[in-house]
Amino acid sequence: RVMKQNQHPHTCSCPHQLPPPEDGSLVFVCGPSGMMKEVSGDKPAGDESVQGRVRGLLGKRGFKSGMVYKF
User: Fold this and answer.
1) What is the DSSP letter of 62?
2) What is the three-class DSSP state of 28?
3) What residues contact 39, with CB distance under 8 A and at least 6 apart?
4) Within the chain, how many helices (H) and strands (E) appear?
5) Is residue 12 pLDDT above 50, yes or no?
6) Which pTM value belongs to this model?
7) CA-to-CA distance for 10 and 43, rounded, in angstroms?
8) Over the stretch 35-64, which tens digit does the pLDDT of each residue have?
């Protein structure tokens, strides 16, 4: 499923719209730093290929680094 653009991660329906954290799942995250921290954890500055550890909402739901791409 695809989350609607600009949908706040704390809306009631958000967790139900995420794919399960399993092989083949991929969640793209892009937004201001505060939102990124809350949803997926910060992305380290510098090298674009470095994504950093998955934290926040996605980390709590069991998503691993290969399942999340931060812009």
Assistant:
1) T
2) strand
3) 9, 29, 31, 56, 57, 58
4) 3, 2
5) no
6) 0.73
7) 20
8) 999 999 998 888 878 899 999 999 999 999
